[in-house]
Amino acid sequence: MTTIRPYRRGDEAALAEICLRTADAGADATGVFADDDLWAEVFVLPYVARHPEFAFVVETDDGRVVGYAVATPDTRRFEDWFATEWWPQFAERWPRPQTELTRQDGTLLYAYGRRAGAEPYGDTHPAHLHIDLLPEVQGQGWGRRLIDTVVAALQAEGVRGLHLVASAENAGALAFYDRLGFTRMPSHEGVQAFSRDL
Questions:
Q1: 17-30 pLDDT tens trace
Q2: Average pLDDT over residues 69-85
Q3: pTM exceeding 0.90
Q4: SS3 (DSSP) at 10
Q5: CA 177/CA 26 separation, integer angstroms
Q6: Among 122, 131, 191, 132, which Cα is nearest to 163's?
Q7: Which of 102, 155, 142, 194 lies closest to 18, judged by CA?
Q8: CB-CB neighbours of 180 under 10 Å
Q9: Is residue 12 classed exposed, middle or buried when 0-12, 13-18 and 19+ CB atoms within 10 A define those classes?
């Protein structure tokens, strides 16, 4: 029976694979970057390293992890930690590009630019999350259940608001967040930010 359970050590490889296979506006991003590992080191693995208590996975009855939601309760503190403790370990592997010539360059420039206050959404909605599901479990209610699980964990810690950012090209995700009662916020080109009061 497919279930949601808390993240546990050892899930990292599965989370990285799910991130990669859904990173291109919901589609498989394998080969989009020169180094496929970059996706997970920016968008999922730092969250389970910093806040494992706000990470949950969808596990099938045969023990495969096929989806996840990860969150931080305090975006400002998380972004400062990302900038000072997490990202510096990758400086040699992925040097900061001088200009944005490729999509990988764009993601690296984003990673190098992360810091408290770089995005305004955390001012009113301090938590943020990332959620990804493999196609085999999409459209079955697992996304809603994952978000409900994360929201309950955040509420238990007294967090008052949550935000997330999706690719503007991912029509399915945008419709999903609308259905869940998230509010669209003014956003940068190419993305759509959403917020939700908790």
A1: 999 999 998 999 99
A2: 97
A3: yes
A4: coil
A5: 14
A6: 122
A7: 142
A8: 14
A9: middle
